[in-house]
Structures are given as structure tokens and as C-alpha cells.
Amino acid sequence: MRALELKVPPPAVALLIGAAMWSAGSIGVPIPIPDGVRHIVAAAIALAGGGISLAGVISFRRARTTVNPLKPENASSLLTAGIYGFTRNPMYLGLLFVLLAWAVFLSSAWALAGPVAFVLYINRFQISPEERILA
Asked: Using one digit for the tens of pLDDT, what is the confidence trace for 125-135?
């Protein structure tokens, strides 16, 4: 399984999972949530996710270190302040929030499997190898 480690960019993983969630959302009975509520909640979660990811990118840029998740060996520093004082992986957390927002928007119980799949994949094939290299 090491063949998948650090090979697929996390945004691409999120897009693939989002497409699968859309397909899964079309089967089964939708969760009855009024459209206005669903749209507002989904937008709020997505905006929070975008803000968390953006804070991570800005922190990396300020520290003049690589944002490329496929080349963690190019990192020039380990960040622990700002958003990194709250989470070690804000960009991945932001993507997770966007997928959660997508699940809310789709109002499908089946679509909730997408964020779970994202966490499992990212932990195994992105975060674990990154931490091993950075150690």
C-alpha cells in the first residue's frame, strides 16, 4: 500500500470523494431538511473550512516553506503557532469541512460516508508518511 503514499494531491482526493458522494447521494431517501436551512448550514461549514485551509496556506507562505503536500521533505520549518496551535493539519481539516458541507447540501445519509473515507485515506496515505518524513 506504500505505492499510494504521497502520490495523490489531497484536493484531488477530496474532489474524487465529493464526486462519489454526489453519486451516493442520489440513492436512498434524502434527509428531510428545508432547503433554506440546508443551504445556509452548508455554506457556513464550507466557509469555515475555506478559512481554516487559507489560514494554513498563509502560515506556510509567511514561514517560506513548501505548501506542496507531495514533497514534505522540502519543508524548511515546523509550524506550531497561529492555526497550527489548534490543529497540525489545517489544510486537510479545511477540506474535511468542505466535504461535510457537501454532505449537508446533498442531504443524504449515504453522502456522510465521504468525509469518513477522506479522513481514513488522508491519515493513512498523507499524514502518516508526512510525519514519518518530518520526524
From this structure: 999 999 998 88
Amino acid, res. 128:
S
Mean pLDDT of 39-63: 97
11-to-23, 81, 92, 99 alpha-carbon distances in Å: 19, 24, 9, 11
Angle at 106 between CA 104 and CA 108, to 5 degrees: 85
How many other C-beta atoms are found inside a 10 Å radius of the C-beta of residue 120?
10
Q: How far is CA 55 from CA 25, 27, 105, in A?
A: 30, 36, 24
In whole angstroms, what is the distance from residue 135 CA to residue 43 CA?
A: 37
**CA separation (Å) from 77 to 4, 59, 71, 82?**
25, 11, 13, 14
State the Cα angle at 30 between 29 and 36, rounded to 5°.
160
pTM of the predicted structure, to 2 decimals? 0.95
Please give the grid coordinates belonging to residue 98. 468542505
Q: Which three cell numbers stand for residue 78?
A: 515546523
